[in-house]
């Protein structure tokens, strides 16, 4: 909205060029519910949010647009119990698919009594963050790595598809490609370019910008789309063409 973009412009004037700020680093910090809504949006500026364990009064810990790695680096406090939601995209353009996972972080330095009290909020916090494909609980930063999260998301989506009677396999080249690190990086670059103004960064300075444009040009090839639809292992299952 206009207020958010105005605040982002203010932040851009105060920070080093092309440094993407997290919510906690912004002088005009967005409200917790606003940050959660951005993560829920399929291409919102923030793709992760961490909340304090208070379901009756939503309180922001931090949020950002740099996905799992940024969250690991800037937000997983050792002395906090936190809950949150992370959006991960795979692929670009019409082939992009978004998935969300719930985070339950239990810092390794949290006192026993505090840990027990705050862990009791897990059910209520899950209800606030629903829906999501899977849940990740961790008490060590190494428990939340990008490869592990991608693997867990892929497994959850395949299992969910099988439960609904969808014909998907757990192994196969195309399902691997759909949830590959490369597909994730392409999606992240695409959304970071589209949200560059919000963060006050130069979209052309985002790593891989030219590659992302090339991928988007190729994705509208009709033969390739039909091939993907026919493949039972591919997440794309319908298309409408204009002639």
UniProtKB/TrEMBL annotation:
SMART domains: ADF
Limits of the ADF-H domain: 23-154
GO terms, molecular function: actin filament binding
Gene3D superfamilies assigned: Severin
Domain of life of the native organism: Eukaryota
Protein name, UniProt field: ADF-H domain-containing protein
Pfam families tied to this protein: Cofilin_ADF (PF00241)
Gene Ontology CC entries for this record: actin filament; cortical actin cytoskeleton; site of polarized growth
BP GO annotations: regulation of actin filament polymerization
């Amino acid at each position: 909205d206009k207020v958010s973009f105005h605040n982002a412009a203010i932040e851009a004037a105060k920070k080093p060029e092309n440094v993407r700020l997290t919510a906690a680093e912004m002088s005009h910090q967005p409200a917790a519910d606003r940050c959660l809504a951005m993560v829920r949006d399929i291409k919102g500026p923030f793709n992760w949010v961490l909340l304090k364990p208070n379901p009756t009064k939503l309180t922001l810990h931090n949020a950002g647009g740099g996905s799992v790695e940024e969250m690991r680096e800037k937000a997983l406090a050792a002395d906090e119990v936190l809950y949150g939601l992370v959006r991960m995209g795979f692929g670009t353009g019409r082939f992009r698919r978004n998935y969300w996972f719930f985070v339950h972080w239990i810092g390794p330095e949290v006192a026993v009594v505090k840990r027990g009290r705050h862990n009791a909020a897990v059910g209520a916090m899950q209800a606030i963050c629903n829906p999501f494909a899977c849940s990740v609980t961790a008490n060590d930063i190494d428990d939340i790595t990008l490869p592990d999260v991608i693997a867990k998301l892929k497994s959850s989506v395949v299992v969910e598809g099988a439960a609904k009677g969808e014909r998907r396999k757990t192994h196969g080249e195309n399902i691997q490609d759909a949830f590959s690190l490369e597909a994730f990086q392409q999606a992240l670059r695409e959304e970071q370019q589209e949200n560059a103004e919000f963060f006050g960064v130069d979209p052309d300075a985002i790593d891989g910008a030219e590659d992302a444009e090339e991928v988007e040009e190729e994705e509208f090839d009709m033969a390739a789309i039909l091939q993907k639809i026919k493949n039972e292992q591919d997440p794309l299952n319908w298309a409408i063409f204009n002639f």
